[in-house]
Amino acid sequence: MRVHAIEAFDDNYIWAIETNNNDKVIIVDPGEAKPVQQWLEQNNKSIETILVTHHHYDHTGGIAELLEQTPCPVIGPENPDIKTLTRTVTEGDELTVGGIQWQVLTTPGHTLDHISFYTPGFLFCGDTLFSGGCGRMFEGTPEQFTQSLLKLRKLPGETRVFCAHEYTQANVNFALKVEPENAVLQSYAEKVRMLREQKQITLPSTLQLELAINPFLRFDQKSVIEAANKHTGSVKNSPEDVFYTIRQWKDNA
Length: 253
Known about the structure:
Elements: E1 2-8, E2 12-18, E3 24-28, H1 34-43, E4 46-51, H2 57-60, H3 63-69, E5 74-76, E6 87-88, E7 94-97, E8 100-106, E9 115-119, E10 122-126, E11 129-130, E12 133-134, H4 142-153, E13 160-163, H5 168-178, H6 183-197, E14 205-206, H7 207-213, H8 222-232, H9 239-251
Parallel strand pairs: 3-4, 4-5, 5-6, 10-13
Antiparallel strand pairs: 1-2, 2-3, 7-8, 8-9, 9-10, 11-12, 13-14
């Protein structure tokens, strides 16, 4: 399985997944049609299936136009606002798309309808988890978001994390405020700085790396708890309280 990043808007990535079917690809979260159409033409591909993680326009806005050119299944969360879906899926559902078995994980927090798609070695998590960060909490609760992140933490460390935005540099800069003594994070931040200076993509990450550097996955680590408490001047020990504290901290940074 080969995964290609298609750049969209200012910082979105639409993912094109090549499988054993050499002429067709799976497209994940096409917020814009034009860059996908250009990539398909350049690579002599067509769309087999579209996967959708949540309803935000920068993840769904290009679907209708793509379907005009290539009618295909569109699989996503149970949300009637996504008019283009042909099938809805939820936690525990298993799919065979592109000859690959996929597991659906419900991951609310950024939005209430958010889902992620997992197959061994590959996680397509939309805006739930970023490299060094996570999505803003627009609709969910701290309890929901922490449970979603705990669910992703249980996946194998070698899992490659394909999120939907190039937010890594800003994320690791904030993470350094939370854990300035984290040596793995320091090293990663330097690597990210060099990549972005060369206008290179920083993704995919791996879950193993994120567990070492991402404060939003490390909300139960002593160093992150201490940083959250210092920031607010109060004692917060529960995972959801620590998570919410650092989420608000980043929102206001």
